[in-house]
Amino acid sequence: MGRLFSLVRNENMKIYRRMRTWILIALMAAFVIFANIMIWHDGKSAGGNGWQSELKQEKQIWSERFENADPNDSSREYYKDQIAIIDYHLEHDIRTTKGTLWDGINESAGLGIVITIFTIIIAGDIVAAEFATGTIKLLLIRPASRLKILVSKYISMLLFSMALLLILFIVSVAVNGILAGFHDIDLPLISITDGQVVEKNMFLHLWETYMLNGVSTIMYITIAFMISSAFRSSAMSIGFSIGILFAGNIFLELLQRYDWSKYLLFANTDLTQYLEGRPFQDGMTLSFSIGVLVVYFLVFNLISWLMFTRRDVAA
């Protein structure tokens, strides 16, 4: 265990010594600040009692969609839930998150794609660069197995993604608190659970969303790590990984009409679909998606291990 800890520390030193890493962190922070300023600017009109009139207008829109929707359209239930949530806000005089600090913080949870891309850039390089530059030999002469070396690199990637997630949260809270104030910090989240309108703790819901988005990031890191183990070119590893990230979602939309598409990786990476009550396909559950992800996770890591342990370092 001590040897593994030493290897992880060494990998983290490599990551944070590079100027590229700090540039990516600065870019992410700048992107979060800019995005939250734009969200705050758009939500300023909902200040004071303006949220009530906006909710009434929003209710009218949902009502029209509900009335015009086909009776067999599954979206009708979603429209009905939105109307029920709006009615609860108005009846109990609970303002929406629009124009509050929670508006930007909740929206920032969707910026997990930025964390994923930046981590892929590091993960796609972490193994491939060692073979390309020949520095892998310096690692292999140490009294540590290839498995421990591989695991240390993977753990370092997970720690880096967690650091980015923490930065995203801290910057988002700070920026939104400065812009909108902290007076609505105890605002509850109004949602539908088992057909009933309930109040939830906003902070716990937020972290639940962040953690579920983190699962998606872990899966894409694993893919990038696997590809990095297969190629000597860092650019090719990063390019393939980012290409899979975007191409996968495009193909998923094309294949959604097929029942077997629910077994595809990309249909299960976004676990927040269950928080919203709108799974990729009817019948899909959180436990089903977790089971599918576990299988892919084990397969990807097995491939990484096989490629890394059998690669020739002499070339």
Structural notes for this entry:
The chain has 315 residues and is mostly helical. It has twelve helices and two strands; from the N terminus they run αααααααααββααα. It has helices at 2-17, 19-43, 50-68, 75-91, 101-108, 112-126, 128-133, 136-140, 146-180, 202-230, 234-255, 286-310, and strands at residues 189-193, 196-200. A two-stranded antiparallel ribbon has the order 1-2. The protein is globular and about 70 Å long.
Name the overall outline: globular
Low-confidence sequence ranges = none
List the total number of helices. Answer: 12
| Percent of residues in beta strands | under 5%
Whole-Å distance between the termini?
Answer: 31 Å
- Write out the strand line-up for the largest beta sheet, numbering strands in chain order: 1-2
- Main beta-sheet annotation: 2 strands, antiparallel
In round numbers, the mean pLDDT is 82
Number of strands: 2
Rg, please? 23 Å
Helix content: over 70%
The assigned structural class equals mainly alpha
Order of helices and strands: HHHHHHHHHEEHHH
